[in-house]
Amino acid sequence: MSSPTQTEYTAIKSTVSSIQALQLALDVELRQFLHGHSMTPNDTSLWTNQFIDYLLDKNAEYRTRLTEKISRQARRLRRLIAPSIFNSKVEAMLQIVAEVAVEIAEIEQLFRHQHGSMTVVQRSFFNDLLTTVRQSYEACTTETLALRLRFEELRPALDFLGQPEDVLFRMLVLGPYSTRDAIRASIGGAMDDLATLHISREGIGRRATEIEYNVSIDWCGAGVTHPQLQEATETLNDLHAQISSQIRSQNVALLKLQAEAATANSSPHRLQEHRDAQWSLPDLITVATDYDSLSRYCSLLEEEQIRVSVRQANLRLSQGRSAPARN
After folding, report:
1. What is the structure's pLDDT at 321?
2. Which among 86, 122, 56 is positioned nearest to 290, based on CA atoms?
3. pTM to 2 decimals?
4. How far, in Å, are 10, 12, 203, 234 from residue 208 at the CA level?
5. What mean pLDDT comes out for the span 110-138?
């Protein structure tokens, strides 16, 4: 045989190898998906029902985990200070902030009154002292207002979790995220595409293997003509194009199915009886933790030494005992 014919035969073997490699890669990806979603690899007719069963099972597991977590948060919340007490503490802190503002104004007035009788060093000392007090006051004001704002954001969820246990548990009886028919309508097209691609891919692989086998038999026997090689090459190139196009098609189908699986494992987001609520069910899982953090931070602010600092500044300014001595 001539060298060109040898080259054509080598090209045919290379194309078949490429087709087989693509088929293997796509099959591995598909089998991983099927295995991960409890589906039978060899019977495409079962795939849709098996996937729907998987989705509903996973959603049931999710709903159970969700309600258990929310119930634990409700029990935890009952061990924390009552929201009404917390609200009173925040209001008391705001009252203290308002009173401190008056005291700071009085200190500043006293400072201005004594300013002319002070040395440069004393003025600098008391100016720094007042600056520190103002900064402490501003920080306390900002933090207290932010505390109240965050508490108001949590209040609807706190009220919900604070209901009697029997009422709360009745409201946490959640139904499936969707019906079987609705799920079938959503994923049926993608599942059909996946099955069609799988069956078509098997046919492409068999056809490519047959072509390579027939060419090799002719090669070793009576010989193969250029027209035969050309026809085989064109057919294989077409098969290669078909299986290459499956990469995107299978990816699109899998993404659709995986998105549905993600939805089943994260829904419902809200109680059906409370669709207008501003908080979602997953939010309730952390509400007691957030409230506990607010409570502890509120206690820290209550221990803030701002009033002590203000009174010490007032005392120092009125008596002049802690100021640097005159030169």
Report:
1. 45
2. 86
3. 0.69
4. 14, 9, 9, 11
5. 80
